[in-house]
Amino acid sequence: MSTPATLTPVADGSALRNAYSCFPTGVVAVCAVINGVPVGIAASSFATVSLDPPLVSLCVQHTSSTWPRLRAATAIGVSVFAAGQDRLCTQLAGPAPQRFDGIDPVIDDHGAVFIPGAAAMLSCRLYNEFPTGDHNLVLLEISALRADPAIEPLVFHASTFRALEVRG
User: Fold this and answer.
1) What's the number of domains the chain is made of?
2) The CATH number of the domain where 97 resides is what?
3) Which of 48, 100, 158, 168 is most deeply buried (CB count within 10 A of its CB)?
4) Residue 23 and residue 15: Cα distance in Å, rounded?
5) Does pTM surpass 0.90?
6) Residue 2 belongs to some domain of the structure
7) Is residue 3 part of a domain?
8) Could you give the CA distance from residue 63 to residue 45 in angstroms, rounded to a whole number?
9) What is the DSSP string of 35-80?
10) What are the tens digits of pLDDT across the range 149-162?
11) How many other CB atoms sit within 10 Å of the CB of residue 33?
12) How many CB atoms lie within 10 A of CB 81?
């Protein structure tokens, strides 16, 4: 029998962030046109939820000043960043006034905004939202999409961007 692991109490925020960084995630842009202007955020807490109805989820900090604006949009675009789009992802996670500098976004007829060259584009509407700790768990229902599994996704792991490796 092996020796029990020494665990750090969950109250230690840095240990918790370190543990979360062990799990690789895809990263997405969540964007819409608000009052004629593209508005968006980057999220790494994106996950698929359901096929029927078609749902995805993400988590947004309570302190976000952008999410309250996006929440009211008729259509919300979710773009799965492609490998090599790390600069765009970092830009969308930065200061709000510069998030779309140099980006020529794709905008659908309903006001959903997408990042050109994304691996997938999902046009969504807010399905439900739940306060959860220091974040809101957001469920989005997909109404239309475009996806290309041949495009490598951008992967976030251990606080940096990574590439996938095909095995076997």
Assistant:
1) 1
2) 2.30.110.10
3) 100
4) 14
5) yes
6) no
7) no
8) 16
9) TTEEEEEEES--EEEETTTTEEEEEEETT-SSHHHHHT-S-EEEEE
10) 999 999 999 989 98
11) 20
12) 28
